[in-house]
Amino acid sequence: MFKVHAIAPQRLPALLKAMPKAELHIHIEGSLEPELIFVLAKRNGVTLPYADVTALRSAYAFTNLQSFLDLYYAGASVLLHEQDFYDMAWAYFEKAAADHVVRAELFFDPQTHTARGVAMGAVIEGLHRACRDAQAKWDISADLILCFLRHLSEEDALETLEEAMPWREHFIGVGLDSSEVGHPPENFARVFARARELDLHVVAHAGEEGPPAYIWSALDTLHVERIDHGVQAVHDAALMKRLADSQMPLTVCPLSNLKLCVFNSLADHNLGQMLDAGLCVTINSDDPAYFGGYLNENYLQTFAALHLGAQQAYRLAANSIEASFAPEEDKHRWMHQLKVCFQDFAEND
Ligand SMILES: [Zn+2]
Description:
- Its EC number is 3.5.4.2.
- By secondary structure, the protein is an alpha/beta fold.
- Helix 10 links the parallel strand 5 and strand 6.
- The longest helix is centred in the last third of the chain and has 20 residues.
- The protein contains 17 helices and eight strands.
- The chain has a single domain, classed as TIM Barrel (Alpha-Beta Barrel), CATH 3.20.20.140.
- Strands 1-2-3-4-5-6-7-8 form an eight-stranded parallel sheet.
- The site of zinc ion has 6 residues, from strand 1.
């Protein structure tokens, strides 16, 4: 077994980059970089309300979740054809491969596209083809999670799930995203029950900006297997105990929280506090094109700001692998790779 204390602090950034890890909270539409938005706009004849890449990027100064979502939906308007969805996911996988991501579970928002007249099949088939090709080229294991937009009705979500059924084998679960406050999880109890009947995994955003009550509701009315974000849990001692006792995974997104002003600075982030409390915390990038960093950047900046060390690095990477929905034999293989990676860093000191 590796000795964490034998890893020199100055080698920590290299270790964070090199260690195998899973990404469990990435909205694929949030990986759409301004450069690709303009390429797709040109290809599809879509007019954007920004003169160029610089003008678009300079609009990425958000004050809260909603200010980001307004721009995010504008960016997604360039996605029309199966190849557009493929190209978007492929660009993400190139970044993920460089970050030593071995497993990625990609959220996608079909309602953002079907409401504009884009066919469900174009969305799912384009993303699925990219997942398959990422496995072949980089040995990245990837699956899709269909997310419902919570600012729309549950009826719309139910219709969306049924509309996606012809592609049931191309996604492994459902999630709940978009504007959180005012749209509590219990509003979506029926569609989540339906998803569970269909043997789909279930996750939900809760406690990003919303209160701890939303996390309780995601657990007790949606019966989720992971909480996306969950950082507001620290305001509720009983909830913290429940999350620790059940080892409920939380997919925390530090740079997203910073950009959307959930915390004033990364040094104020409560990720270290949640780890200390024994919660099953993971680090993720959320919408990396908009929030200033892909997965490794989230690890690097968070570790620097919170003065975390190799022990926490191992815990977070192991949590990400164990909390994924990948087959057990894959998890065993990645856990072995993780241990070998830490051993190499300890021995090479
Ligand atoms: Zn998210």
